[in-house]
Design goal:
The complex is a heterodimer of chains A (575) and B (438). Chain A has 575 residues and is mostly helical. Chain A contains 22 helices and 7 strands. Chain B has 438 residues and is α/β, with parallel strands linked by helices. Classes of the chains: A mainly alpha (575), B alpha/beta (438). At the A-B interface, α6, α11, α12, α16 and α21 of A face α3, β7, α8 and α9 of B.
Chain lengths: 575, 438
């Protein structure tokens, strides 16, 4: 609706004039057309004008600014966002939010600005001005109103200001967290206003910190002291910067802040801040380590069965993980509208796919090579190359995009210094679940009993009527299937591509050897301790050096204890 | 015979058609035969298997398309072009072997290929020894100029330096994280950037340099370090020379830890449309990339190229990328140079190609310079949720590629000029040409 820029009076004037000139005009046919055009004009414009709101102090019009958003460049869009914020209209917030999320678009054929919602057949359109449902249209029929980083930042703070009085405390919390980044006079006033009304403790905390950040430069000395103490209680990194500024010295060693008592207070607050921050950082590193450990555990646990229990050096283990990841991709392709549930389907599917491939490998190749370690190694290495190239031929050498379900994105924010990302949190839980399930299978089921019997004494198990060949195939399939399940988890963390497996094969062997071949608990402890050690080394050694150091530690450890952390004891091992 | 009757019964018309068809058929069959003895061979040296296949396969297809188009126009010098495709399988020594094979056995007139710097370095002695021509299409760390190599990708001053300028002047960045994969391109680029930033008055406390292994996937600690580094009250940006594969987990971790592009923008030099097509771009929206070409560039010549590519590859979803544009420019320059020289002889083409101007895909004209690099515009783009880039900034003029960076102590005084000096590394202080180009 490009015409909406014309002032209100004129809007009606034009068609009137047209009708009047038309009356005097000669041909009836022309008159007809003119009337039609005028009617159309009314029809199009009337709802728009009825829906407009003007800002009380600046006189900006909602419709007008929407128009600027649609047609302007980034800098005019920025002024439009500013103007929109000043207009008291319920639709402003949703427009700004949609703009930020990329859901504000316009129809190509009539330039009508709409909200979109992604549905199966295309986009579900809602008129911004009237809120009328405009039905579903093809994805190509609407064009996005683009934003850049500067606009995004502006939108975020505008939305934060507008939703400061939202009824949900979580929304208010994100608002104040956004606003505290830039404490100017307006925000200070907003915060002071919100202070009295706010009831949620978390929100209040942020508001107090924000005000303390301002008060630390106040005129009144006692206000400053109070602010300094206040900042010692928070974990917001800006507080640390401010406190350090108070303690700063100029080039001659003279203090920038003359008041010694204030400096002492600042030092005290800073120490308190650092103390707490260090504790949370330690927890954070521990979490990082456990999460790396859980990834290692997932990657290695299948190998703990095939290599640890059966003694097969399976170089194609990484590719079985890769197959699991590709299964996730295929599952997501088949259920594009249920991404949130796709992983639950992918887990059993990946287990089956990788497990079946594993059984095929065992029946086709490995069973002829039992007891010949070197040949097994070379043969399975060949299989790994075949699987990689097969995936390259089927899915193309490019990485495939596996989407992260909404419930796995984001982080659980404990406080400003400690936030745990959901995907890692779930993967730690998942790896422990898989571990427990595997342990149950080996300890409590008859398959587990047979597996243990066969690995401990094959001829005796055979004599007792165990179909050892069958058990071999199933065990290998179980190990491979678990590798596939690991692939589902890894698809959430890393690239799904033909090279996925290679990145994990060395780590997996490392964990199994370190933990003790043939012992599942060893794999668990090995994986977790390697993860934690790696993460504690990383901050001061760098990622590359940390990996090297961990490897050296393992080599030295294996020299001391060749059978790993949890060495298996008994006659079967010696034999 | 009545004319009308003849027409209605039309026994003659099918006959003429048949004859025509037969003639065309015979011609069509005769054409390759006639040219087979006398074609110009073009070598394509890109990995089609192994790790690098992910990036290089597309470039092989691009070259096949360009050669097909040129043949439709009648080839060069009246001869058809013939592509010789070899697969160096992401194996660096194999690159050298395959180059030797292309030059000695197939006697190709020019080679278009390589992606990683290490593959180029392994090919370099061979093309110099056998006097071949190599067109190298990927952005690289500079510090090289060979008589036999033409660098159509960006030198550091055509990608890294303008990107840093943009962040410094337009975004107001004061603290810098230089993050890269641990190999020659990131290390050299970061060295140049560090020197450049310090020359601009950035203190060393405001620069954080971090290297990670190839395919690094656990970014938790590094992202949390970046977050801490960026929360000191000064605007912070990450300049990323992280290699392709490791980028996805890196951006995912950034997203999960709540580091958004508005807080700490990441400008990447190795993330293009191709890399983005393999990932979920939601967490990346707003992060930046610096290239000399984006698929989203609004230019007629670009639209034509994209249509051509889609027709050739028979897939509407395939994207076009910066290295593809580099091949487009390089190939057209070579064609022009061969026509200018009237021969495919290496010495003649090497002389003729200097100063050759061809249109690039952003609507301008690129020129081959005496240092064997080309002029290009520099574009900064923000990643959009459809995997495309929205250009937010571009250089006013084309930037000439500089082989030897002015910001590294050793390379400041070195010049490459294959016209006046006949040297790829002339030292302007000692007034000597070391003669060695790598």
């Amino acid at each position: 609706m490009r015409e909406t820029i014309i002032a209100r009076g004129e809007v009606y004037l034009y068609p009137m004039l047209m009708i009047m000139t038309c009356m005097q005009a000669c041909s009836k046919r022309w008159c007809c057309i003119a009337v039609c055009v005028c009617l159309w004009w009314f029809a199009v414009l009337t709802p728009a004008i009825a829906d407009d709101t003007l800002s009380s102090n600046t006189g900006h019009s909602f419709v007008e600014q929407l128009q600027v958003l649609q047609t302007g460049n980034f800098s005019t869009k920025a002024t439009a966002v500013e103007a929109l914020e000043g207009i008291d209209d319920d639709r402003v917030l949703s427009v700004l939010k949609a703009l930020l999320n990329g859901d504000l678009r316009y129809r190509k054929d009539d330039d009508r600005v709409v909200f979109i919602k992604d549905v199966e057949e295309g986009y579900q359109l809602t008129d911004v001005l009237s809120g009328v449902d405009l039905g579903v249209t093809g994805r190509r029929n609407v064009k996005k109103i683009t934003v850049n980083n500067q606009l995004r930042g502006q939108l975020r703070s505008a939305i934060a200001r507008l939703s400061l009085s939202h009824k949900n405390p979580k929304v208010r919390l994100t608002s104040v967290q956004e606003l505290i980044k830039d404490m100017d006079a307006d925000t200070t006033a907003l915060f002071r206003g919100a202070m009295g009304k706010e009831s949620d403790e978390n929100v209040l905390d942020v508001i107090r910190t924000g005000l303390a950040l301002v008060d630390i430069n106040a005129e009144d000395r006692s206000t400053r002291l109070r602010a300094i103490t206040e900042l010692g209680e928070t974990l917001n990194p800006i507080a640390k910067v401010r406190l350090e500024q108070l303690l700063a010295q100029d080039n001659d060693g003279a203090h920038l802040e003359a008041d010694a008592e204030l400096r002492r207070a600042a030092q005290k607050s800073l120490n308190r801040f650092k103390e707490r921050q260090e504790l949370y950082e330690l927890l954070n590193t521990l979490f990082f380590g456990l999460s790396l450990g859980s990834v290692l555990l997932l990657a290695a646990i299948g190998l703990a069965i095939t290599f640890g229990v059966m003694g097969v050096i399976n170089m194609a283990h990484g590719e079985l993980i890769m197959l699991g990841a590709y299964t996730t991709y295929v599952v997501q392709l088949m259920m594009p509208n249920h991404i949130d549930y796709s992983l639950f389907v992918a887990i059993p599917a990946a287990f089956l796919v990788a497990g079946l491939v594993g059984v095929a490998i065992e029946r086709g190749v490995i069973r002829f090579l039992y007891g010949r370690t070197l040949e097994t190694l070379l043969a399975t290495f060949g299989i790994s190359l075949i699987l990689q190239q097969a995936v390259r031929s089927i899915f193309s050498p490019l990485n495939r995009s596996v989407e992260t379900p909404a419930w796995m994105s984001g982080a659980w924010e404990f406080n400003a210094s400690l936030s745990l990302t959901y995907n890692r949190l779930y993967i730690i839980l998942f790896s422990l679940l898989v571990f427990a399930a595997l342990l149950m299978i080996l300890k409590k089921t008859s398959l587990g009993l047979q597996v243990r019997a066969v690995t401990q004494n094959r001829p005796m198990a055979k004599a007792m009527g165990v179909r050892t060949e069958w058990v071999d195939a199933l065990t290998f399939g179980l190990g491979s299937g678990i590798a596939g399940v690991a692939g589902v988890a890894l698809s959430q963390l890393t690239n799904v591509g033909p090279n996925l497996g290679q990145a994990y094969i060395i780590d997996s062997f490392m964990v199994v050897v370190f933990g003790g071949v043939g012992n599942l608990w060893g794999t668990l402890v090995g994986a977790m301790s390697l993860g934690v050690v790696n993460k504690f080394l990383e901050p001061w050694a760098g990622a590359v050096l940390a990996k090297i150091l961990v490897l050296i530690v393992i080599i030295l450890f294996i020299q001391k204890r060749p059978r790993g952390l949890f060495a298996q004891k008994g006659r079967s091992v010696e034999g | 015979m009545n004319h009308r009757i003849f027409n209605r019964n039309g026994p003659g018309k099918p006959l003429t058609r048949w004859l025509q068809a037969a003639c065309v058929g015979a011609l069509a069959m005769a054409t390759p035969l006639a040219y087979a003895a006398d074609t110009i061979k073009v070598g394509i040296l890109h990995s089609l298997s192994g790790t690098m296949a992910i990036s290089e396969t597309t470039l092989k297809d691009t070259m096949l398309m360009l050669i097909e188009e040129q043949n439709k126009k009648g080839g060069i010098l009246g001869k058809k072009l013939e592509a010789v495709v070899v697969d160096p399988a992401s194996n660096w020594p194999l690159f050298a072997e395959k180059t030797r094979e292309l030059l000695q056995k197939d006697k190709v007139a020019a080679i278009f290929g390589c992606w990683t710097s290490v593959s180029r370095k392994s090919v370099l002695p061979v093309v110099e020894e056998l006097n071949g021509i190599l067109f190298y299409p990927v952005q690289y760390e500079g510090e090289e100029s060979s008589r036999n190599v033409f660098y159509t990708g960006a030198a550091p001053n055509q990608q890294a330096i303008p990107a840093v300028d943009y962040l410094m002047n337009d975004i107001g960045v004061e603290r810098w994280v230089l993050a890269g994969t641990d190999y020659v391109y990131p290390r050299t680029t970061n060295k140049i950037l560090e020197a450049y930033l310090k020359a601009k008055g950035v203190k060393s406390g405001d620069i954080m340099i971090n290297y990670t292994p190839f395919g690094h996937s656990d970014w938790q600690s590094i992202v949390s370090d970046i977050k801490k580094f960026g929360s000191q009250g000064k605007k912070t940006a990450v300049v990323s020379t992280i290699n392709g594969d490791a980028n996805v987990p890196f951006y995912k971790e950034l997203g999960n830890q709540g580091v958004s592009a508005e807080d700490i923008p990441v400008v990447a030099f190795s993330v293009g449309e191709e890399e983005l097509s393999g990932i979920d771009t939601k967490p990346l929206v707003g992060h930046l990339a610096a290239w000399n070409y984006f698929m989203s560039v609004d230019a007629d010549v670009n639209d034509t190229f994209i249509d051509q590519w889609h027709r050739f590859i028979k897939d509407e979803k395939r994207v076009t990328t910066d290295p593809m544009e580099a091949h487009y420019i390089g190939f057209n320059m070579w064609v022009k140079a061969v026509e200018k020289a009237g021969s495919t002889d290496t010495d003649k083409v090497v002389d003729a190609i200097i100063g050759v101007k061809v249109p690039n895909l952003t609507g301008g004209t690129s020129e081959m310079l005496a240092n064997h690099h080309i002029t290009k515009p520099v574009l900064i783009g923000e990643i959009q949720d459809d995997g495309q880039f929205e250009t937010v900034w571009e250089t006013a003029d084309l930037v000439p590629g500089d082989a030897w960076s002015d910001f590294l102590p050793g390379s400041k005084d070195i010049e490459a000029d294959w016209v006046a000096l006949k040297c790829g590394n002339y030292n302007s202080k000692t007034k000597k040409c070391s003669g060695q180009n790598f």
